[in-house]
Amino acid sequence: MLKKIEFNIGEKHIGDGHPSYIIAEIGSNHNQDYQLALKMIDTAAEAGVDAVKFQTFRAKDHYSKHAPGFSYLENTSTYELIESLELNRDWQSSLADHAKSRGVEFLTSACDTEAITELTKLGMVAYKVASFDLPDHRLINAISSTGKPLILSTGMADMVDLSNAVNTARKAGNEQIVLLQCTSLYPAPAELSNLSSMQTMRQSFGCLTGYSDHTSGVHVAIASVAMGACMIEKHFTLDRTLPGPDHPFAIEPKELEQMVKHIREVEKSIGDGLKNGPRPEEQEMFEKGRRSIHAAVDIKAGEIITEDMLIIKRPGYGLVPSMWDQIVGRKAAKDIEADYWVTWDMV
């Protein structure tokens, strides 16, 4: 039996027994355009997410200028690309205020200690560490020391990586940890999603688990909720044709809205696991659609009821079929019309 885990991110409860926390990952899809960033916050809020997330890094502290390009980005200079995706840190306060005004939390992946200091002053309610930064225990220690919930994306990680990261956070006094299953491909094939690893991580580390989704579409993210994800992070764009590496595999506004809607429906569908008979809403179907014992022929009062006098059919107003052997051999207490259901007062 897993120990129940829950805590708050801002004013929202997350964890066992609470709705999945849905994060619209704006990341670098703002394209260094402040108005675009605001519009993305507005659109995500309208879709019903709990938070929007950006990424706070500086190219010079993030990548070597000698870093080779990634094959999926077609001969693009990694350093120059990352430099073109930097979030203007002067925007963060106003973006956070705007998000708050729209009823969603402003989150970001803080990629250096200066960012942590700046964001702490802004009152960040949680911090995210990207999969690529998971081995940076100094960064995890600095974030954990803020006392705010820590979201660790676990793409490419093995159990040793996870153990080291979780232990680093706990040594800093932070137990508010969410481990997100992730596949670090863009887009990621659905068959590599490995959603079952959420349960493995939960059992192994006693942490909440969720899913950071890089697959195309929304179906895998929705499936993860049915498998226990307490948090969903999904890349989001206003238009997949916009320039930038993360737009092509991100979902657009209508898809985001549908994802949120379907996640909330799936959560309601999971239920309490109890089997206590028909729900009140099923009562009519229970009575009219189930089988019960009926008279196969006209039965006169005083006749001994034999098997050939009975039939099992719908509706379910009569005695349940399991009472068959208790009815056979009894005397009819009144006339029973053929094709009518048999009740106790008739025998």
Describe the structure.
The protein is of the alpha/beta class. It folds into two domains: 12-270, TIM Barrel (Alpha-Beta Barrel); 280-346, Antifreeze-like/N-acetylneuraminic acid synthase C-terminal domain (Type Iii Antifreeze Protein Isoform Hplc 12). The chain is built from twelve helices and twelve strands. It has helices at 34-47, 59-62, 78-84, 92-101, 113-121, 137-144, 159-171, 197-205, 219-226, 253-270, 283-289, 324-327; strands at residues 6-9, 12-15, 21-27, 51-56, 105-110, 127-129, 150-153, 177-182, 208-213, 231-235, 292-295, 310-313. The strands form three sheets. An eight-stranded parallel β-sheet has the order 5-4-3-10-9-8-7-6. The chain has a two-stranded antiparallel ribbon with strand order 1-2. The protein has a two-stranded antiparallel ribbon with strand order 11-12. Strand 6 (127-129), helix 6 and strand 7 (150-153) form a beta-alpha-beta unit. Helix 1 (34-47) runs parallel beside helix 10 (253-270), helix 6 (137-144) runs parallel beside helix 7 and helix 9 runs parallel beside helix 10 (253-270). The longest helix is centred in the last third of the chain and has 18 residues, at 253-270. The mean pLDDT is 96.
